[in-house]
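Troubleshooting log. The previous structure file for this entry was overwritten by mistake, so regenerating from the original sequence record. Sequence copied from the archived sheet and checked twice against the printout by T.R.
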Amino acid sequence: MTRVKICGITTVDDALLAADCGADAVGFIFADSPRKIDLGKAAEIAGAVSGFVSRVGVFVDAPTEVVKDSLTGFLDYVQLHGEESVSECETLAQCRGPGRIIKVFRVRDKSDLAVLGDYMDVAGMFHLDTRVEGKPGGTGRTFDWGIAVEAKKWGKPIVLSGGLTPENVAEAVARVEPYAVDVSGGVESAPGVKDPEKVREFVKRAKQVT
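Regenerated output below.
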């Protein structure tokens, strides 16, 4: 069954909502975004969520030591959404193993997959998002899901994001069969505010595909 991550969590209530709806992970954004949160607040929210729900920190070209401290603290995974090098990922992987590193690749066409092979030993999952120049993510735009199917040939768990909503997530899961799907704006009533009905429907539809 495909796992679900609800990202851009900014309050305890939204974290508990995601968990109650059956999400497998919640994400905290520590980069420029309407959903940006500071480490202290994220730690507080993370502490309120059941240990069965993974806590993921989203960073964009942050100092390695900051990410490392978070990974050895309250986060279960770090999601690297910038231009982090193989050596930077390797340094972080030494903390808790490469399985805790989610490397994001922004894609426009299949040529963007060429770099995946460089990260095989330093990341446990490959996360694919839509490439929009000047934006590291959160664009609300989909990309050709056939590229995500192609990415599965590397043998790593694939996390799919980019413009997913309750209306299209079942189709995305059926076509790609990803390890996980990741959503933020697609389940919100306003930036940083989760909509209970959208969260519930997204999780339900993502998990009902067999």
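The longest helix spans residues 196-207. Archived copy saved in two places this time.
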